């Protein structure tokens, strides 16, 4: 067991969201933390205690997923409003909207090279986008229920996805085919991700389980049941030696994958923990929950001497040693219960961070802005609906929001005004406009599908006509051959 000095400690406590924190991700340079919430806002927290935080407004419903690009220049977010947004994480608040899903977007994730984005949705599809071209590329469509999560492998050649059909699927991005399916789940599969080497995937379920699979041998390596309720999110440590998980049992658990056992149980959230994420360097991790809290922890346990620890493990005598990630299927199930001597950590959350960061609100959504407000803020042509490409209905909306320098300093830390008060638009009119926009989206997608089917019909008809012409030509050749044969035989005697 680790000593007290090596235990994780709570480093920061961020307050700013007004509803459940549903997702979190660190920037690659370890200077920012992005969180999404049921309050429809995206927060960018600067990890420097004296820096301001940014609140981005634009999504029309709950934000369900967030992910920094590898360069840190973009932040992707998904929402229950069926859209994906790409944000510039600075005071300008620029965003681009991607539309192709027809239901809640549950997951967004960049590829390692930052060129592609993979999204998962309640419309039972996984979609891949081109980030540079801002274009929808293709769909993966074999799930039979809501898709909860999708992730690229580190080399970008595979996509892992999971969902309410109780399956975890592996896809080949070159052929766009499902190459493997894991079905060993007693309920919906809630989250999936690759380890840093790309040789294994971990998946969690509503049945409280966490499983690690070797995708080279298609074998179950480790199986944990350390939570007493559904696991909502997890994250691999960059070293591949640890994994953190957040659950509806209000705890964060840390598992040592080398030892194959639970080592820490962290308390601090008052309600389900919905999001956990390691920083890119592994020295920090964040957790968010239904209590609106964002907690940032320092991973002191990572200071362990790995060589010494592995040497100690080799000397240990046990009839059934737990498997390493590169091992094959364990000889017996490893179900870890509460009696394994884990460290319980109960931080005093209220005393950790006395002064909350100054919050600057950016990214005002043009749909809720009056004409006068748009003119004052420099917003022009707020919604664009370009034509679809390759028969798919993809809508990209470019919005540019700028705050005056003087106004930035006068903004108070805290409460976002209600949308009705800002816009001066009646709820009935706004609801009607939202309904019209939704119907236009559906109509656009229907037209795209009809165009695609019409193209297929034309191709089939052209193929039939070509075949008919070939058959007629063959028949004419046969008739001419018969005539020549009869002419050569001469008249009958």
Automatic annotation (TrEMBL):
Belongs to the WD repeat POC1 family. InterPro entries: WD40/YVTN_repeat-like_dom_sf (IPR015943), WD40_PAC1 (IPR020472), WD40_repeat_CS (IPR019775), WD40_repeat_dom_sf (IPR036322), WD40_rpt (IPR001680), WDR55/POC1 (IPR050505). The keyword S-adenosyl-L-methionine does not apply. Keywords: Coiled coil, Cytoplasm, Cytoskeleton, Repeat, WD repeat. Residues 372-384 have a biased composition (Basic and acidic residues). Residues 433-467 form a coiled coil. This is POC1 centriolar protein homolog B. WD repeats lie at residues 14-55, 56-87, 98-139, 140-181, 182-223, 224-265, 266-298. PROSITE patterns: WD_REPEATS_1 (PS00678), WD_REPEATS_2 (PS50082), WD_REPEATS_REGION (PS50294). Pfam families: WD40. SUPFAM superfamilies: WD40 repeat-like. Its main location: cytoplasm. One of its GO terms (cellular component) is ciliary basal body. GO terms for biological process: cilium assembly; microtubule-based process; multicellular organismal-level homeostasis. It is found in: Cytoplasm, Cytoskeleton, Microtubule organizing center, Centrosome, Centriole. SMART domains: WD40. Residues 372-426 are annotated as: Disordered. The keyword Repeat applies. CDD domains: WD40. It comes from the Eukaryota.
